[in-house]
From TrEMBL:
The lineage of its organism: Eukaryota, Metazoa, Chordata, Craniata, Vertebrata. It is found in: Golgi apparatus membrane. The chain crosses the membrane at residues 26-50. The keyword Zinc does not apply. The keyword Transmembrane helix applies. GO terms for molecular function: sulfotransferase activity. It comes from Serinus canaria. This is Carbohydrate sulfotransferase. Its EC number is 2.8.2.-.
Length: 379
């Protein structure tokens, strides 16, 4: 009996010890799982914290890198209230591009303020004539109007529109001789539509054009048409240049070709129009932006500047809603930088009187688009 009693006590102690050991084992196992869980959480936190900032940043701004999939509202700072006429008429802009739109809204605000300046009315206003409508190219498929202002990279913008219109599948496929052949490039002019269709497109389409420093543009036109003439357009040297020389060269015994001084004297003459009529549409390479695009009569969505084209070209494509379809061709380094030395060199041998008369004609372009009066006129 005594032995049986001792056996029972021993069995109870064994069961209690066994139960206690199992309890400790379960506690140990639970502790292990807790440590593993905390390690996984810490690992995830470290991964997110020290992830490559470039890759992370790219995910935060998908609209910069990919096609627009969701349009966000543009928020303009409250201290500035933009009139309706300043708002772009194309597709809405991504909130990630808010910095660039402010630059363009300021340009449009300046334009409208100068347009209202009665003292500059003769220099800033023009009729929306057939001459203007001939300068505006149409892309109905994407509801875009582009006003051509020669000598500011317009060839490349024409290529963009040619691709958008479907005449060619890529910019690289477009032959150079086709770009300016308006019988073959698939770019209709706004003048080819009826009055009601013209009005509808002017009211509803995204509209833009490009400008550059007016004097630098004139130098570019002179070099391209009267010095190098790379497209072999003989009428500039054989017809237009002799007409300017006969009228404006002071030393008639000189036999050299058209000089920049002759060109400036012609452009600054208040009575230049009688020659312009003889030259026809060839004058588009040096007439004012006002005469080409009527910026005070047509409410443009964006006005790009040649000097900031690296930023303006992508912005225009995105504002028009076509950045996922086509890219602006690569811009060679330095080609858009304003060359003050070149401008001063070309004007160094020209009388102040002739320069002032030239500025008087192009003053509207300087004021409308925020270009500063040349330093050599102030001295």
């Amino acid at each position: 009996m005594c032995q049986s009693f001792l056996f029972q006590i021993g069995s109870a102690n064994f069961i209690w010890l066994t139960s206690d050991n199992m309890h400790h084992q379960w506690l140990l196992l639970a502790a292990c799982f807790w440590v593993i869980f905390m390690f996984m959480v810490a690992s995830k936190f470290i991964t997110l914290t020290f992830k490559d900032p470039d890759g992370y940043g790219a995910k935060q701004e998908p609209l910069i890198l990919t096609a627009v999939t969701k349009v966000e509202e543009v928020h303009v700072p409250e201290e500035k209230h933009w009139p309706e006429e300043f708002q772009p008429t194309g597709k809405a802009l991504s909130g990630n591009l808010i910095r660039q739109p402010l630059v363009h809204m300021e340009r449009l605000e300046l334009l409208r303020n100068v347009c209202r300046d009665t003292a500059l009315r003769d220099l800033s206003h023009t009729a929306v004539s057939k001459f203007v409508l001939d300068r505006i190219f149409v892309c109905d498929k994407h509801k875009i109007l582009f006003c051509q202002t020669p000598k500011v990279g317009n060839t490349q913008w024409k290529k963009v529109l040619i691709v958008l219109n479907g005449a060619f599948s890529s910019i690289e496929e477009i032959p150079e001789n086709i770009v300016h052949d308006h019988e073959k490039n698939g770019l209709p002019r706004l003048s080819s539509f009826s009055d009601s269709e013209i009005k509808k497109r002017l009211n509803l389409y995204f509209k833009f054009f490009i400008v550059r420093d007016p004097f630098e543009r004139l130098i570019s036109a002179f070099k391209d048409k009267f010095v190098h003439n790379p497209r072999f357009e003989p009428w500039y040297r054989h017809d237009i240049a002799p007409g300017i020389i006969r009228k404006y060269r002071k030393n008639r015994t000189e036999t050299k070709g058209l000089q920049f001084e002759d060109f400036v004297r012609y452009l600054g003459d208040p009575n230049h129009r009688w020659l312009d009529v003889q030259f026809g549409d060839h004058i588009i390479h040096w007439v004012t932006y006002v005469e080409l695009c009527a910026p005070c009569e047509i409410t443009y969505s964006v006005i790009g500047h040649h000097e900031t084209l690296e930023d303006d070209a992508p912005y225009i494509l995105k504002a028009a809603g076509i950045d996922h379809l086509v890219s602006y061709p690569t811009i060679p380094p330095g080609i858009t930088v304003y060359n003050r030395t070149k401008v001063e060199r070309y004007f160094s041998g020209i009388s102040k009187r002739d320069i002032r008369r030239l500025y008087a004609r192009f003053e509207g372009d300087f004021k409308l688009f925020g270009y500063r009066e040349p330093d050599f006129l102030l001295n």
